[in-house]
Amino acid sequence: MDREIESVLPGQRLIDDGDMLLWRALPAPDRIAVGPFVFVDHYRHRSRRGIGDKPHPHAGIEVLSYLLEGGVEHRDSMGFRDRLGPGDAQWIRAGRGILHAEQPEGGRHGLQLWTSLPVAQKFAEPAYKSYRADDIPAIRSPGVDVRVIAGRVAEAEGPMKMTTPTTFAVIRLDAGVAIRLAVDPAAELGLYVLEGSLKASGKVPDGSSLGPGTIAVLGAGPSVGLAAGNVATTVALIGGRPAETPILFSGPFVMDTPEHLTQAKRDYSAGKMGRLDGVPF
Question: What predicted TM-score, i.e. pTM, was given to this entire model?
Answer without folding.
Answer: 0.95
